[in-house]
Write a structure and sequence with these properties.
α1 packs antiparallel against α2. The chain has four helices and twelve strands. The protein is of the alpha+beta class. The N terminus is likely disordered. It is globular, with a radius of gyration of 18 Å. Strands 1, 2, 3, 4, 5, 6, 9, 10, 11 and 12 form a ten-stranded antiparallel beta sheet that branches. The protein has a two-stranded antiparallel ribbon with strand order 7-8. It folds into two domains: about 60 residues; about 110 residues, Chitinase A, domain 3, CATH 3.10.50.40.
């Protein structure tokens, strides 16, 4: 598993890197600096912990294609399988078709005069004025897409995160015309975990 650290400032990155070096991440750790942050692999738990404490968003890229970016870490209980949670969410299409028919990532500079295209919203608990109550029971018929179920596991009450969910963990090749999700669409959920029981 790779965790990428995208500090909000160079000071946050320097603090996180210094803390990791002082803590001794281990010989299996690889830190690679790049534009906008750093990618960390191997035994980098001290670096990730230091980055969180420094206020840097943490991005976790999972093997199934799901990407979870924790933008604000809560201090409540963590979500585990079987938990009952209350959360607000805003959902967007991650890609939209270009004029050529090829998918274009939302936000890419392909609009008129180089303007960035805005992601297309398709659902929001905030718009309805009621948070989503969800029980993460195994074996139960899921009320939400698999990417949302997997993406919230491990988040703490009070956390805010962006979940980038590939099509196979969303509505897949069927899509969901009722809410405006085309076939094979990747989606983005911005979540705020209100409570965990």
């Amino acid at each position: 598993m790779t965790r990428s650290v995208f500090p909000t400032s160079s000071a946050a990155f320097a603090t996180a890197l210094a803390a990791a070096l002082l803590c001794g991440c281990g010989s299996g750790t690889h830190v690679e600096e790049h534009e906008g942050g750093a990618s960390v692999a191997g035994g980098a738990k001290p670096l990730v912990r230091a980055a969180i404490e420094a206020g840097a968003p943490i991005t976790e890229q999972r093997g199934d294609g799901l990407v979870v970016e924790v933008t604000e870490r809560g201090d409540g209980p963590a979500i585990a399988a079987g938990a009952s949670i209350l959360l607000h969410y805003d959902a967007f299409l991650a890609e939209r078709p270009a004029a050529s028919g090829e998918p274009v990532e939302a936000g890419a500079g392909d609009g008129p005069e180089g303007e960035r295209a805005e992601p297309t919203p398709f659902d929001s608990s905030r718009t309805r004025g009621a948070p989503l109550h969800l029980r993460l029971e195994s074996g139960a018929r899921p009320r939400v897409i698999e990417g949302l179920r997997r993406g919230v596991l491990g988040l703490r009450a009070g956390s805010r995160a962006t979940l980038r969910i590939p099509a196979h963990l969303a509505w897949g090749s069927a899509g969901n015309a009722g809410i405006g999700v085309p076939p094979d669409a990747a989606v983005v959920f911005e979540v705020h975990v209100l409570s965990v029981e």
